[in-house]
Every structure is written in structure tokens, then in C-alpha cells.
Design goal:
247 residues; alpha/beta; six-stranded mixed beta sheet; 35% helix; 18% strand
Length: 247
């Protein structure tokens, strides 16, 4: 089984230089390319300086509690001897900070630079045929059997066109009860697993870390009880809550 985890960016990042990438740097392709090089350690003459290189793989760049918990779970399961036939990949939807300049979702292995440009609130709904973002996300998710969304409600709203179409792949959205309205639960492949304060108290996780803790505990359960757990969750997403609370 191929499993995809979609997560949002966070402001807590591995590197916090004074000259991090900002929204105005994206106003022209030329300026953006230069800023990406600069934050990757290159000066105007093209010389590389290691002490000015703030780039890192996306999976290492984000240091908030959610991603710390998520990385711990991914590390455990990838070191398990059953890992291989079942795989888990982590991706982020927004790409302006990619060092390679590609307009594609960012995998945990793609190199990015620190930034203060991530979309946060009141995002526009991205339509097909405009930015290319919905098309790229559609191609990505349709390559998987099971998708877990740890995305914020604003990111989900912005990518609504991707998620409002019934697909073969099972999509499980981890959302607080008050946010479940942002997805169309009438679609047979779309499921909401509620991760509000009640669950946080039950598993002793803060709101900031909660979704990461849920995935970490799921990975731990698979390591201890068998990878068939992922198929169980795919067939009945609400079993996820029972599984992680039994850890």
C-alpha cells in the first residue's frame, strides 16, 4: 500500500536568518531565483559559502511540535523490517520556497529555504487552469492508495477543487469538530476523523502537536501489531481513533 501524508508549513523552521524569503521576493521570477540562490549560500559572484547556506530538506526544515511528532513516527516505521511493501510519503502543497524552482508539491526530500511567505488565512480557492497547483495536487494524490490530510482548514479550502471530486483513493482528513464543514463528507472516498480537544486530553497531546501525535501513534501501532492496521483504517477510518487510544 502506498500512503501519502499531506501537511501544512509552519513558522517554526530549522533556520531563521534575518533575510529569509518573503512574499515580495516572489513578485518576479528573476528576483525569486536570486533569493533562492542567496539563501542556499551563493553570493552575487556565484561563490558558495557554507555558513550562509540555510537550505534543508523540507522534512527537516519544520521544527514545530506537529512535525516533530510526525517525524518520530515516520522514523520508527521506516526502520521496521516490514517497511517496503507499505510505504509512507510526506508532502507539502506550496512550492515557492523550492530551491529547484519547480511548480510542484514539495516532498520531504525536496530542498527548500526558510521563508515567511506561506499562505495563512482567507485563501482564495484555486481553480483549475490558472496556477497549476490543483492539477499538480491531483496527480500527486491519485498515485496513492490512502491519503492522510494534516492540512489546516484554510489550506483545504484553497485546494477545495481537488478534494470535492470523488476519487478512487481514500482521503482521511484529521480535523477539529468545528472544521469538518470544510470537506464534503457526502463523497464516498472522503472521511473526517475528529481531532479536537477531547481527543487531545485522551492521548495527552497539545492542540499544536495533536495531528502529529495521531500519526505517530498509528505508526507505532503498525510497528507493534502489524502493517495490516493501515488496511483496517482504510476500510474503516474511524478505527483510527480506537487504534491510537489503545497505544
Amino acid at each position: 500500500m502506498k500512503i501519502l501524508i499531506l501537511s501544512s508549513y509552519t513558522t517554526r523552521q530549522k533556520h531563521q536568518p534575518a533575510n529569509l524569503l518573503r512574499r515580495e521576493d516572489c513578485n518576479s521570477d528573476e528576483r525569486l531565483q536570486w533569493r533562492l540562490k542567496e539563501l542556499s549560500g551563493y553570493n552575487t559572484e556565484g561563490w558558495y559559502h557554507e555558513d550562509r547556506d540555510y537550505s534543508a530538506p523540507a522534512g527537516e526544515m519544520f521544527t514545530g511540535p506537529l512535525h516533530t511528532q510526525l517525524r518520530e513516527g515516520l522514523k520508527q516505521i521506516r526502520e521496521h523490517n516490514q517497511y517496503g511493501e507499505t510505504t509512507l510519503d510526506l508532502y507539502f502543497p506550496w512550492y515557492a520556497c523550492r530551491v529547484d524552482g519547480k511548480n510542484l508539491p514539495v516532498s520531504e526530500n525536496d530542498t527548500i529555504v526558510p521563508f515567511d511567505i506561506a499562505p495563512l488565512h482567507n485563501l482564495a480557492v484555486l481553480e483549475y487552469g490558472e496556477t497549476g497547483v490543483p492539477e499538480a495536487m491531483e496527480v500527486l494524490i491519485e498515485g496513492y492508495d490512502l491519503v492522510f490530510s494534516l492540512l489546516r482548514q484554510d489550506d483545504i479550502v484553497s485546494l477545495r477543487r481537488v478534494f470535492e471530486v470523488e476519487r478512487a483513493v481514500t482521503l482521511i482528513f484529521l480535523l477539529a469538530p468545528s472544521h469538518r464543514r470544510v470537506v464534503d463528507g457526502s463523497l464516498s472516498n472522503v472521511h473526517v476523523v475528529e481531532t479536537g480537544s477531547k481527543l487531545g486530553k485522551a492521548i495527552r497531546a497539545t492542540n499544536w502537536a495533536l495531528k502529529g501525535v495521531v500519526l505517530r501513534r498509528l505508526c507505532e501501532a503498525a510497528c507493534s501489531d502489524g502493517f495490516h492496521i493501515f488496511e483496517q483504517v482504510k476500510q474503516d477510518p474511524q478505527q483510527l481513533l480506537e487504534i491510537i487510544q489503545s497505544q
